[in-house]
Specification:
Keywords: Glycosyltransferase, Transferase. The protein contains 9 helices and 9 strands. It is α/β, with parallel strands linked by helices and 237 residues long. Helix 1 crosses helix 4, helix 6 (92-106) packs across helix 7 and helix 8 (189-200) packs parallel to helix 9 (217-225). The protein is globular and about 60 Å long.
């Protein structure tokens, strides 16, 4: 880890701690993190940065649990099991915290391209792309008028509906490394289409990440396609 990467990790840890501090006293934050309240005060107020080992622990362990709890508090399910995650996907500052936590937790390799599906996946994709300094690409269910060449992936769903995603062919170059992300993974059908697009573009998949996994079906489906890490911030049964 070079100096810039260490500094970025330390600042990410401080950002996680500041988020936690919004709803906790320093004593409560100490119980959550296992760190002395005095040290936490200095980190949160910017007087000193945590060491790299401590910062890594905050981002990976404490950060994931804290963000998962925050995610649970913001997500709502209706009686038919549909998910309302607008309180998450519309909050770019929250998603900016998710990116380093996901990278540390699942050890995703830095990709050339972050690939997602329009529309709810775009804000998460933007956060991940910014963190990795990667390009953002998103597939759509319709073709752009002025684009001549597309990568197209099509699948007939269990319901009988045919789902098709299109990505401008120029969005991915052969040999690119691609991280597939989305806000939600349930059946895994969307992720399968995105993975197919990446493979059609002769790209190498570095991982699959979702904010929310509903059950294991979608995660297992993605793991059957790629050997790269597959993970979600939190899972609902």
């Amino acid at each position: 880890m070079n100096r810039a990467e260490k500094a970025a990790l330390q600042l990410q840890a401080v950002a996680v701690l500041r988020m936690l501090k919004e709803t906790r006293t320093y004593e409560e934050l100490s119980e959550v993190t296992g760190l002395p309240a005095g040290d936490l005060n200095r980190y949160v107020n910017g007087h000193v940065l945590p060491g790299t080992d401590r910062a890594s622990e905050v981002v990976e362990a404490v950060g994931r649990e804290a963000l998962a709890d925050e995610l649970l508090a913001r997500v709502e399910f209706d009686d038919e099991g549909y998910v309302d995650n607008s309180g998450v996907v519309f909050d770019q500052s929250f998603l900016d915290l998710v990116a380093p936590v996901a990278a540390e937790t699942f050890e995703f390799e830095s990709p050339d391209v972050v690939l997602t599906a329009a529309t709810d996946g775009i804000t998460l994709g933007a956060a991940m792309a910014s963190f990795f300094d990667a390009r953002l690409a998103y597939a759509k269910k319709s073709k752009e008028t002025a684009v001549e060449e597309f990568i197209e992936s099509r699948q007939r769903l269990a319901s009988g509906i045919e789902l098709t995603y299109y990505l401008p062919a120029s969005a991915i170059d052969a040999g690119d490394t691609v991280l597939v992300v989305d806000d939600l993974i349930r059946s895994g059908e969307t992720q399968e289409l995105l993975l197919d697009i990446a493979l059609q573009g002769d790209a190498d998949v570095t991982g699959v990440f979702a904010l929310i996994a509903v059950g294991d079906e979608g995660m297992d489906r993605a793991r059957a396609i790629t050997d790269a890490p597959v993970g979600a911030l939190t899972t609902f049964e």
